[in-house]
Write a structure and sequence with these properties.
Structural class: mainly alpha
Number of helices: 2
Largest sheet: none
Distance between the termini: 125 Å
Oligomer: single chain
Number of strands: 0
Radius of gyration: 41 Å
Order of helices and strands: HH
Length: 69
């Protein structure tokens, strides 16, 4: 009789596991993106600033010449 009880208990456990309605979770992968901003090298930035300053000086000099005339 113990064997029959054990068999019925095992059968009930198998039935409960087979009829399980729990929703399975989808595998979620977390990814991170690393964004690296490219910066102009210091030499180029210095040259650009120098060119802008020279351009402003030329315009100022032309303005003074025009005012002198």
């Amino acid at each position: 009789m113990k064997k029959v009880s054990f068999f019925l208990s095992a059968l009930a456990m198998v039935a409960f596991v087979a009829c399980n309605n729990a929703a399975e979770e989808a595998a979620v992968e977390e990814t991170t993106e690393e964004v690296v901003a490219e910066e102009a090298p210091a030499e180029e930035a210095t040259e650009e600033a120098a060119e802008a300053t020279e351009g402003a000086e030329e315009v100022a000099a032309e303005g003074e010449e025009a005012a002198a005339e």
